[in-house]
């Protein structure tokens, strides 16, 4: 999972987190945290910065989670869907699906679901 996504996951609770605590949790420096937060802001993620408190999202958020999605869908579609994959960002959904199918030798009758937050191309 990309560091930006792990950072967003830590901030998802809407509570304040210091740059030091975020850095320690992710194994990077406070400066690296700030750089990743800057990229998240450029991608449209709004967050607050309060000196002495840290960073937080204006409200808690629920991120896409393939395990949770799979368990919720299992009740209704267990016999129809073979695999669910959640991505923070992909260049091309179609290219990624084809690449995945070729790499895993997926047969045409197998159903895949790709869920993503954003597509760059």
Describe this protein's structure:
The protein has 121 residues and is α+β, with helices and mostly antiparallel strands. The protein is 45% helix and 18% strand. It has helices spanning 3-11, 19-26, 30-42, 66-77, 93-104, and strands at residues 48-50, 54-56, 83-90, 112-119. The strands form 2 sheets. Strands 1-2 form a two-stranded antiparallel sheet. A two-stranded parallel ribbon has the order 3-4. Helix 1 (3-11) packs across helix 3 and helix 2 (19-26) crosses helix 3 (30-42). It starts with a helix and ends with a strand.
Q: Notable features of this structure?
A:
alpha+beta; Arc Repressor Mutant, subunit A; 4 strands
What distance separates the N and C termini? 20 Å
* CATH 2nd-level architecture of the largest domain: Orthogonal Bundle
User: What is the helical fraction, as a range of percent?
Assistant: 40-55%
How would you sum up the global shape? Answer: elongated
Strand content: 15-25%
Order of helices and strands: HHHEEHEHE
Largest sheet properties: 2 strands, antiparallel
CATH class of the largest domain: Mainly Alpha
User: Considering the protein shown, what is the CATH homologous superfamily of the largest domain?
Assistant: Winged helix-like DNA-binding domain superfamily/Winged helix DNA-binding domain
């Amino acid at each position: 999972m990309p560091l930006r996504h792990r950072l967003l996951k830590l901030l998802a609770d809407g509570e304040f987190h210091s740059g030091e605590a975020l850095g320690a949790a992710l194994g990077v420096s406070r400066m690296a945290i700030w750089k990743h937060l800057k990229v998240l802001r450029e991608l449209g993620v709004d967050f607050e910065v309060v000196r002495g408190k840290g960073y937080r999202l204006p409200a808690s958020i629920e991120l896409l989670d393939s395990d949770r999605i799979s368990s919720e869908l299992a009740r209704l579609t267990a016999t129809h869907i073979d695999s669910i994959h959640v991505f923070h960002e992909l260049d091309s959904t179609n290219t990624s699906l084809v690449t995945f199918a070729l790499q895993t030798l997926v047969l045409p009758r197998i159903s895949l679901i790709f869920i993503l937050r954003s597509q760059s191309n």
